[in-house]
Amino acid sequence: MNARETVLGRVRDALTLAPKPPAEVPRAYRTGRTLPDAERLDLFVDRLVDYKAEVHTCVAGETAATVARVLATRGAKHIGVPAGLDRDWLAQFDGTVQEDHADIPAPALDQLDGVVTASRVSCAETGTIFLDGAPDQGRRALSLVPDLHVCVVDLSSVAVGVPEALARLTPHRPTTLISGPSATSDIELERVEGVHGPRTLDVIIRTDA
After folding, report:
1. How far does Cα 3 stand from its chain's mean position?
2. Angle 150-154-155 from CA coordinates, rounded to 5°
3. Nearest by Cα to 151 from 186, 183, 173, 121
4. Could you tell me which InterPro entries the record lists for this protein (predicted)?
């Protein structure tokens, strides 16, 4: 037995003999915070804009017109959508729509001009949007591979803080957190976008939904 094996053996023995008190994790989070709709909207928009996302507000009845306008502005003619997306949202879009399914390989999603999804919950305080893989949000690859993500958020689903947002999620569902377009910085702190996901994020907030 060499010196390394001797040391590791003694460490293992010590860990085996040491008492194992139960770990106590503090859970004194701030919860139950609320804000009036207007203040919650202003805070959420401020955070999204700070992340360099483009924000558009509309009422629910203007969803189709807003989605079509955003896609036209981005030059998107061929888009992907999750199978459960409300197709009324695309009623005024004049391009082609590809419904996503698990048999489509992730590299093929790169051929799309963009993707339109719904969302589950958002956090105003951090400007974070949560997707949980529900039928109107789709699999994670659909929202990560295309270069443009148009995400529809209902103001009623925007919580004030992280604890309030997490309380609305189902723990066993696969959750994707989006805080602005994908970006990173190199060693000289030069911002590079589109490295780990969409280069462009358009958020449509439906203020009466």
Report:
1. 49
2. 125
3. 121
4. FTHF_cligase-like_sf (IPR024185), LUD_dom (IPR003741), NagB/RpiA_transferase-like (IPR037171)
Task: In whole angstroms, give the CA distance from residue 77 to residue 94.
Answer: 8
Residue 156 has pLDDT above 80, yes or no: yes
Torsion of Cα atoms, 124 then 126 then 127 then 129, to 10°: -90
What is the full DSSP assignment across 136-179? TT--HHHHHSSSEEEEEEEGGGEESSHHHHHTTS-TTS--EEE-
Which of the four pLDDT bands, split at 50, 70 and 90, describes residue 194?
low
Q: Which two tokens stand for residue 59?
A: 């009422």
Residue type, 20: K
Domains and CATH numbers, the chain: 34-204 (3.40.50.10420)
Q: What is the DSSP string of 73-131?
A: HHT--EEEE-TTS-GGGGTT--SEEEE--TTS-GGGGGGSSEEEE--SEEETTTTEEEE
Coil, strand or helix at 180: coil
Largest CA distance in the chain: 75
* Burial state string for 83-122 with b = 16 or more CB within 10 A and e = fewer than 16: eebeeebbeebeeeeeebeeebeeeebeebbbbbbbbbbb
Two tokens at 161?
A: 């803080």
Q: What is the CA radius of gyration of the chain?
A: 22
Residue 187 in this model has a pLDDT that exceeds 80: no
